[in-house]
Amino acid sequence: MKILFAASEIFPFAKTGGLADVAQALPHSLSKHIDIVCVMPLYGFMEKSLLQKSELSFRVTIGDNTHFLTLYTSSYKGVKTYFIQTPLLSDTEDLYSSSSGSYANNNPNFGIFCAAIVKLAKELHVDIVHLNDWHTALAALWIKESAPEIKTVFTIHNLAYQGLFDASMLKYFGIDTKYFTIDGLEFYDKLSFIKAGIAYSDIITTVSPQYAKEIMSERFGCGLHTFLQTHKEKIFGILNGIDLELFNPQTDRALTATFSSTNINFKYLNKKGLLKELGIEASDRPLFIMISRLVHQKGFDLLLDSLSEILKRELNLVIMVDGQSSYRKKLESESKRHGNLSLQIGYSEDNSHRLYAAGDFLLMPSLYEPCGLSQMIAMRYGAVPVVHGVGGLLDTVHENQQKCGEGIVFLYPTEEALLDAVERALELGKNTKEMQRVISFNMECDFSFDKSALSYLEHYRELVA
Length: 465
Ligand code: GLC
Prior knowledge:
36% of the residues lie in helices and 22% in strands. The chain has helices at 18-30, 110-123, 134-146, 169-173, 193-200, 209-214, 225-229, 267-278, 300-312, 326-337, 349-358, 374-380, 391-396, 415-430, 432-443, 450-464, and strands at 2-6, 35-41, 52-62, 65-76, 79-85, 97-98, 101-102, 128-132, 151-156, 164-166, 186-187, 190-192, 203-206, 235-237, 287-293, 316-322, 341-345, 361-364, 384-388, 408-410. The chain is globular and about 65 Å long.
């Protein structure tokens, strides 16, 4: 069985969020069982000299335009990735924005990427194409139309991003108007890429069992809940995992001191080092960390409303944020007012590892969270998660020691509930013995992708049987 796995971002080549981590870790786990290759766009910021030029190159026609595409390849941890160079997408310096601003939901050049995925799937004679999020979703329609023998799996990492375009773009993409219906690609008079993935793929997966349920409700369905309900027989929730070799506190070279569940005292050297570096006094206080993109989803409104109260407590808070938004200014002004809040602007892989290793608690007040990886990484590095109980957070963080892992869960996205959760974390922190038990317990949990990879395998096998 041969699989082509397509995503708009794959670690370490391009990353804005968890999608990139999963698009690396899942194929890597799957490659232990089957033949799998990946494909992503070649972006303008990528150094071509580090890639090999592929012997493949091809032409794709969408609508009235024909594009000549050059392909490059590279391998990471034994998995080969194809990079599609397109004249348009490859000019971008940023994944989802240009110098004139963000593409928000709709860079049409991902349509060219979709056409390239279909072409590559045919060239490589794959059995299944595994598509991820809206950037790849149109490929499900085109495969159904032109190569129905190839099966498609569509994974929803975040339903809020849908790839919506003006209906006039149907012609640009060369899509027959017969597909522009409520059962097909139409969404409030717009052309929706994500609906192509939902309607025409053979199987849909989401990144946690809880999120699979949630997206079929009005609260989390982003306007698509009834549409998803009509496809519920083919929707499955499979929990994400993390790459335990990349996230390993016992070997992590980014850390001040490596540590394991049996010598967590070394963890505190990381905390001491970080606080000294940041010039934070009262370093014996519990350290809360947060690592997040500056987007509404991650709960910044709730956090900002509660921040002054939180910071009155005997704690330190370090937040690493990425992205442009009005939240940044507000956070910056808060950090000027409060000595126990430190901001790290810009994402750095190594610095994020250092933060996880230093933190006593990870704060994750997400309004919704399809899966979330930070809480799993935090537990692996001995930081206890304090999370809003939604989506994958509910599947991975529990208030009792029956199930991996353990942490503090608040069920309502209110200031009161968040403050109460912080208080409970502080209580736990005071009880050194109990705190150490939770840390060791979490560090022993298996958050790898291996178990979930087997679930994907089962679905693949059913599709080609
Ligand atoms: C998206 C989701 C996040 C998930 C990640 C990987 O970034 O917002 O919850 O963990 O995709 O699937």
